[in-house]
Write the structure tokens for this entry.
Amino acid sequence: MRIANLNGRAVILRGDRAVDVERASEGRFNADPQSLFADWAAFETWARTTDATGEPFDEAQLGAPVPAPRQVFAIGINYTAHAEEAGYPPESVPVTFTKFPSSIVGPNHVVELPEGNVDWEVELVVAIGAEAHRVSRDDAWNHIAGVTIGQDLSERLVQMQGTSPQFSLGKSFPGFGPTGPWLVTSDDLADRDDLAIGCALSGQQMQGSRTSLMIYDVPELIARLSAVCPLLPGDLIFTGTPGGVGNRMSPQRFIRADDVLVSEIEGIGTLTTQFTSR
Ligand code: ZN
């Protein structure tokens, strides 16, 4: 099942049609896409049984599928190839930081480039559907509403400024958290723990890997994060990026104002992000 944000309203996508959640449920569920997570289990049960067929829709009208998460976790150094290119030893634990929620945007967003070196990082993004506190690996997927594609856009100068890196700031400029184009429930995926993932910048393939190559897989991340913080319904987790970021290329390559970034994950689709100068 695919769930999306169409012009600010929650919809279920069926083929090329969109079912408006509030209207089809006769007001039982609110139009606000973020409100669905308050009782995701009830929403999902209803959504799977409604026979509404919906209407054709314009993909250009899609917004962030999870537009206002209370918490956004992000994981660094979670693929061996990226750990190697970034110079981290293999025994490092995953680096945890936040992308402040004001950075979250949807598909087809035009990101205004700040000064500095803006880099791409395609990532599988997980949305929490049921509060998770001290959850085991085996129970982890039961707390996940679905997955989407994300870009952990990163301005490398701010990120690496000072003696202690400023990951959370350097990755939270406006528009630095593109997500979408929709949320996909894990039963729609051939193998939720092994999905092809990659991105291309202005037609050139930059990253290509599989999510099965994560050092700490999705259940392990849920177990480790929820051992400390309760993960709340509607929270997002950016699960780390494979190798192939511009900061580690020789010569380095950063995003320019005329670039188009297309991110792809098997079974979800593609997320397109454009850029403009300030
Ligand atoms: Zn990242």
Notes: The chain has a mean pLDDT of 96. DSSP finds six helices and 19 strands in the chain. The longest strand covers residues 269-277. Residues 140 and 219 are 5 Å apart (CA to CA).
